[in-house]
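Data deposition worksheet. Section B asks for the primary sequence of the deposited chain exactly as it was used as input, without tags or linkers unless they were present during the calculation. Section C holds the resulting structure in token form. Section D is free text for depositor observations; keep each observation to a single sentence. Incomplete worksheets are returned to the depositor.
Section A, Depositor: J.P.
Section B:
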Amino acid sequence: MTEQFSHSPRRRRAILAGALSLLLAVAGVGSFTAVATAKPSAVTSKNAATVPAGVSAQGIGVQAVPGNWTLAFDWYCDGSYSTTPIVFNANGTWSDGSGYSGPWVSVAGMLTFTFNNSETTYSGVVASRSVTGIQTTFTGLSGCFYMLQGGALSAAGSHDDPRDAAGRS
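Section C:
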């Protein structure tokens, strides 16, 4: 049964940040809170000072994130991936081949990025030149994704799913 979310966008982000904190705590990494907003703002940690706006891409392994990637996304996790090029900038912003963009943050080996003017959120584990994770629109649509950094092996072939990376038809 699919549960519809009736929470405000701010509450949904807080829920996502809490889930990420729990995941990091279970992994033994520590207790971090990463807040992804429609505009890059700040990332805080219980054990660190606030990171200034525009420098939201701080954390362990952040050096591995900026650059050119191929995003392979699969709404419903049914094995049917579509791909798009995506660029992560060192200033904490990203843009893709479909004209979408937004803020991103990487903390303790986790990468989370959101779409401007949308609730769509991707979050995954960074491992060398790849990222594997999940995405959601917070309106009932969710899926799986992976990303390969430029120079890594080619992504799987795309298919004719009518939805794009933001979950829009």
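Section D:
The CA atoms of residues 66 and 88 lie 5 Å apart.
The chain has one domain: 9-149.
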